[in-house]
Amino acid sequence: MGKIITVLVLAVATVLMLGACNAKQNEDIFALPKYIMHAGGVMSDGRAETNSIDALNASYENGNYWLELDFNRTSDGKWVCVHDWDAFYSVGVTGMKNPDSQTFEEHRKSAYGYESPTLDVLIRWMKKHPKAVIVTDVKENNQEFARYVSESYPELAERFVIQIYNRDEYKAVAESGFERIIYTLYKELPEQRYDTELLSDFVQNSEKLIALTYAGYRENAEDISAVCELDIPVYIHTINDPADQSYWREFGAFGFYSDYVADTAK
Q1: pLDDT band at 4 (very low <50, low <70, confident <90, very high)
Q2: CB 209 within 8 A of CB 183
Q3: pTM (2 decimals)?
Q4: Which of 32, 121, 195, 248 is most enclosed, with most CB atoms within 10 A?
């Protein structure tokens, strides 16, 4: 009997230990990083702003797990990772402003020599890369995208950080089940973008809000510095130069959206 009890105690202890390890792993991947990789980061050949699987692989291999990606929708309603159609088809592949998903599939690997993923492809990639956290950039139909992800991929929804572009989007995104939301303010009017009283109230009443993001325009550094005094991390985009990063840190910036992390900045 004593041996049986000992075995049971060890088994329970092992389960508890594994549970603690899993909880620690989840906690670690959601700790805010100093760098979020812009458009997935640079590819191994140095090309940036691709939103490609190649870029995601390079960033992940370099230990950069928070990955910002642009999403657009094809004419037949499929979500894909491209910044905009003009950029994707700048080589004149089809002449289409907004292709259907079949046309996108035909050209997503051949247009530039890298793979621009569909959302389904991205999901499969995420399942193979368990530390990856995707920060979304969806300039149109953002709330619809959030709802689609939460309903279609509930098992991975916690690893999506939804960016919102105005305060009115917060409620719908939060109610879609996302626990982490970033408010990026470059589309807001200046009188709202830097209004610390307005922002402070929003921050205090938005428990799922984890950060604010600003474009790195030095003429607005003093305004952004005042925002950095609020009780929430502030990111600046898109900043690659370590000297520029040092400049913004002096004004209180927590971190950066970057194409890469320079060796001198690590």
Answers
A1: very low
A2: yes
A3: 0.87
A4: 248
